[in-house]
Records
---
Amino acid sequence: MIGNFKNAGRQWCKSAEPVLAHDWPADSIGRAIPYGVYEVTANFGYVCVGDCFDTPRFAVDAIADWWCGHGCRHYRDAQRLLILADAGGSNSYRSRVWKAQLQELCDACRFPITVCHYPPGCSKWNPIEHRLFSHISLNWAGVPLRSFDTVIKYIEGTETATGLKVRADLKRGGNETGERVSNDKMRSLKIEPHHICPAWSYTIQPRPEPSTNNQFIYC
């Protein structure tokens, strides 16, 4: 919750600033939804902060923003993308919208995308938790998150002795809940389940590009 609320931790300051002990929605100016992408080998984190809902479309949009703004420039010769994700939440292995949106991203990038979900209850072994989000929490500990600008500032200001760098963007609106994917659309997706843990591990192949031959029909 964004507002004048208590944030666990300590910060040295000249004088104490009064804050609210309870983060009631009525007292807030909004809700920050951070979705992170962490590159293990580069020790680089990208966090997309939304202000609506944590939806599968928002999750895939964050991955697409990372790829268009950072990934495609640093991995020019990439021929595939491997995503390690939690089993639940906006990137749930059961979500049809998550898979359908990844198919759209796959079609745009023109290379296969492999997704491997951590089993339910095992998200604590995801490197993004203890190499990115934990350091962000330590960086803004004790600081009331009174605005979205404060959230972005402290996320981007997160650094470690091992060289962690973080970039953050604010995405306003566009994350409405209730999106559905029909059975016909699901059958059109090119999803190849793996032999081991097929429910949690699968590869999405790009679909053939539509023909560029223009046909004119006069009626």
Note: The beta strands are 33-39, 44-50, 81-85, 113-117, 165-171, 191-193, 201-204.
---
Amino acid sequence: MDDSFSFGTPSKGRTRSYNEPEHTPKHARPARSIERSRLVLGVGALVVAAALVWGFLHFMAGAGNEIASDQQRVVDQIGNVQDVQAQLTGTQAIRAVQTLYAQDGSLGAVTPQALKAFEPAFTYTTSASTDPNTVSVASSSSGVGLAVMSASGTCLYAHVGATATTYGSGSTCTGEAALDASAPAWPSEPT
């Protein structure tokens, strides 16, 4: 044997690079692929979260609109109840006018004083009505105009003629304005 050392012939196989670990399995995925997968999953999670937030907000907006609609119905019902008191006062005043007309034979003779003497439960005036217990009265040869202010802010009209009574509503709450009433009944309730 000889003390010489020889490197021998180079191998024909694959040489290892400096960046590759010594025992890297061939089926192992590179680090870039894992980072890309994490990025895709993160973006997907953000899209799902955004869809959930949008759905929740859309649901809450619908619920809020439904509550507001319910509250408006309650307000309308309260207004209708307040109008009922004014209608009752107006109906009593119409009966009083019809009775006085039957007794005297003249619509022009129906005055606030005559109505107060006949039906003392309410206040009668030639001025504007300001509440459901005050009736504004205007007389003419063709009829008597009655106006009653509802607590809802609606003024209800009745025009009592010799043969028929017509109804209406408006913002000016005087018997004069009520002389132009032409509807066949009190204003209907909103549905």
Note: The helical segments are 31-104, 112-118, 175-178.
---
Amino acid sequence: MMRITFMGTPDFAVPALGALLDAGHEVIAVYTQPPRAAGRGLSLKKSPVHLFAESKGLPVLTPPSLRSEEEQARFKAFNADAAVVVAYGLILPKAILQTPRFGCFNVHASLLPRWRGAAPIQRAVMAGDAETGVAIMRIEEGLDTGAVCLAERTPIWPTETAAELHDRLALIGAGLMVKALGDLAKDSLACWPQHETGVTYAAKIEPSETRIDWSRPADEIQYQIQGLSPHPGAWFEMELAGKRERVRVLRATLVDGEGKPGTLLDGKLTIACGNGAVRVTEVQRAGKRPMSAEDFLRGAALRPGSVLD
């Protein structure tokens, strides 16, 4: 079994850490992002990886940076065979990358070189990709440019949200990383350079991308809704209880329909787009729980012919 330094922060990384422990690897230290202020009281909140590691009795480190000689010396002192990195959130300096005996390996939620960068799951759904997957990559100094050691493809289901795909890919990635480390221990892990063609970048989602533009084609709007669901959420504005309010759209399906973009075509929250229409099936008002379109319409003064912003 391998001596592993694990580096990860969000929910996506937890299955990989659990799988490494279940496989019998020795996780000698867990690195994660420092606790952040969250909630109404702005109390410090530990990351999902932090909480999971503590529940397993693992030592947790939360340095804000790995660039100091002190932090690099502390990392080196663990004498790890390999570092496993899953959505850690910090750039690993060259001195860190060169420390583990076999190197540093990353679970990346795309089929590299497609969707290098920060938001590969959301970008794949928003682009209408038919499939995606997970790659195990040997980390180098470039942005997700390292050699790929293992990869597994999976379809993106027609109604699948980014959150649902996220959970599936997290489990796939956990299994792949266990296999990669098993092969590495047997000196049978083969890695290959990424193709120079087909490179795309999954930039961080900007707030300007979240508002729904009903003049766009219906399929693009559906991809936007699914790719941003539930967070940060695609949204439109309307008058509710005498004031303007954002309404997040969490689910929608493609349907037949025509009309001026943004027009409500029926009593089922079917909305005309630039080409075709979408039927919204789940929404969330500000400060409220998600609700069905049917429940939403009971409390909203919307009639066929109304135009949404």
Note: Residues 162-185 form the longest helix (24 residues).
